[in-house]
Write a structure and sequence with these properties.
Elements lengths: L5 H8 L18 H5 L6 H11 L6 H13 L6 H16 L1
């Protein structure tokens, strides 16, 4: 059974390597940096990569304390306080 239509297959085969329709061009396979396997990242990309790889984002001890307090009934959730905080946050975003 054939899954793709002939139009989709022919379009994929006729695309030109190294060109994109969104105005961004890729380096060709013959460029020196691609043959070495090296990639030069911008400072923003390096910063985002460091943020993604950081392990200190979650305070595991605090999460366990909150989980235990919820399970034992010591921590009470106030829905109106949460709603007020969300509304205030949205108002700040809309300014």
């Amino acid at each position: 059974m054939k899954i793709t239509s002939p139009a989709i297959t022919s379009t994929a085969r006729t695309s030109v390597a190294g060109s994109r329709t969104d105005g961004v061009t890729r380096a060709s396979a013959s460029s020196p940096s691609s043959s070495k396997g090296a990639v030069d990242l911008s400072s923003t990309a390096r910063h985002l990569s460091n943020l993604q790889n950081s392990d200190g984002d979650i305070n595991v001890a605090r999460v366990n304390e909150i989980r235990d307090a919820l399970a034992s009934g010591q921590l009470k959730i106030d829905p109106s306080r949460i709603a007020d905080g969300l509304i205030a946050s949205v108002r700040d975003l809309l300014k």
